[in-house]
Amino acid sequence: MAFSRTSPLILFFACSLFLHGTLGEIICEDLPTDVCSFSIASSGKRCLLENYATKDGKVAYQCRTSEVVVARMAEYIETDQCVSACGVDRNSVGISSDALLEPQFTTKLCSPSCYRNCPNIVDLYFNLAAGEGKKTS
């Protein structure tokens, strides 16, 4: 059985086609609801926790892809340490810049442990404030 020099290259190429799916592309709709908020899909779009009424009238939650594209970030799930350091709630439905009006929230958001280590959350709230024309100081 002859083994050519191109055989390893063909094998590598064939494996690389399946590797992307094996490593797990982040798709918001496939994320569990407890890690949905503050996550970014492989497409670079933010994930958003939404609620809906079930057929029996109860409230259920689902993770959806928003239309907001995050510059320079993709395939990112925020750590529990950042969620805690920044004072955000991963179980909040939707997102609002109203929290920026609360001094306790802005103190946590601007703390070194959040501001220096959690660029995803800082970017999100910075862009919310910029989009609504609110000052964060």
TrEMBL record:
The keyword Signal applies. It comes from the Eukaryota. The keyword Signal applies. Keywords: Signal. Residues 1-24 form the signal peptide. This is PAR1 protein. It comes from Ilex paraguariensis (yerba mate). InterPro entries: PAR1 (IPR009489).
